[in-house]
Amino acid sequence: MTHEEQDMLLSQLADGELAGAEANALLLAALDDPELRQKLKEMLRLRQATAAWRDQQPSRPVMVLTAPRAARRRWFGWRLGGYAVAACLGGLLVIAGFWAAGAGRPGLVLPSTVARVTPEQMQQVARVFALHESVAGPLAWYAADDDNIRVASAEGSETGNRPVAVLLRLEPAAAGGPGAARTYVIVCRERQSATIDLPDDLPGAAGLRVYLAPKALDGRIDMQYAIAVAGQNGGGVTATLSGQRRVGLTETSLGQLALSDRLLNVQLAAWPIREPAN
Amino acid sequence: MNDRPAHEIAVHVPRMYRVALRVVAEADTAHDVVQEACVRALQKLDSFQGRSSLATWLHRITVNCANDALRSDARRRQGHGQLQAWPVSAVAENGPADAAEQRELFGLAWRALDGLPPECRLAFSLTQLDGYSYDEAAEIEGQPRGTIASRVYRAKKLLLEQMGPHMHRRAEQ
After folding, report:
1. Closest residue of A to B85, CA-based?
2. pTM attached to this predicted model
3. Does residue B86 form part of some domain?
4. How far apart are the first and last CA of chain B?
5. Which residues constitute the domain of residue B47?
6. Positive or negative CA dihedral for A256, A119, A223, A143?
7. Are A41 and A75 in a shared domain?
8. pLDDT tens digits for range A60-83
9. Hey, are the CB atoms on B6 and A74 less than 8 Å from each other?
10. Is B85 touching A (CB cutoff 8 A)?
11. Residue A226 structural domain
12. Angstrom distance (rounded) from CA A63 to CA A61
């Protein structure tokens, strides 16, 4: 073996790219040969000098949202599924006496405007979520609008994480603009990300996908979020909004979604749901 | 709901970020590049035939997005030569002195990279900076593994020659 060939093997050894037996033989040789040992040391120092670069992570979270076409397909199937879940749970909730007054649907009275979430609304969300869990078992998340309820079962580790309630509101930026404001109540789990396709009837939009990753901090919620609106006719994602914000009971503006002919204000409030007292 | 493709892509995000940062030399732009690359990857997922690995496919998309970002800002000069920022997360295990030495060595290597033959620079960047294995780098480059190993070695040899006085000084301390 020439010196050049041996040095090339040293380079691979320093990078962890040499197979076991070959690596052992070379290490043994290096132990007995000061010159070889010095070369290996230099290779390792060079490798070590770039380790911090290799460990780098994005400075902000990157949201990976499912492809628009797939999202659209899912949304369709999902809506039917949503109705099915709502119908099943709805029947049980009626028995339990949890019809929202005058709304003809189970669960919550969704406020049209919320400057600040009231204690009564917090209590109502907690009760409805607890009721759904008592029917369907532990939930990873729960999402509802005026017409639909959607839930996902928790898997293992999620069940121990505290539930976090989220009030998400989308409304036309221009007063009297096309389309009505939409309010969604979502309950997800602290320190667990949830990707939720929300049933949506925004004019010109086929689907709404929401990513939430909450973390409770001093009574407020440190929320990573991404919201994507898919266009109709397979038009792909028409608008996205993503970022990280600390939010509380007062609605916080996350920014605006630009659809084809209008802007939507996106606002969000969130709070940790307290465990029921025994 | 099947979010598996999104999860599979998310696993590669840190490496995509390093690739983007190496090309565009700015953290915010690199973040935007990765976000755009994820959107493109998901949109083109149907066209991914599995002839290459997902890592290789995502690498190509990331590089294309990064080059688009560079083209969109004509004022920005090419790549890594401009990068001054040492990774924020860089904390050496053996304390501040070790961290300072690593930082100094990295700075020397970073500046010397510009002087390497292009094929050696790329092989070094893929394996030492982006974190690809030799096999993955070989797939990205479309070269045999042995060629990558040879190029990486040549790059290291040239870098160590340039950094030699510094390395020897440190060794004597």
Report:
1. A53
2. 0.54
3. no
4. 60
5. 4-72
6. negative
7. no
8. 767 676 533 333 333 333 333 443
9. no
10. no
11. 68-272
12. 6
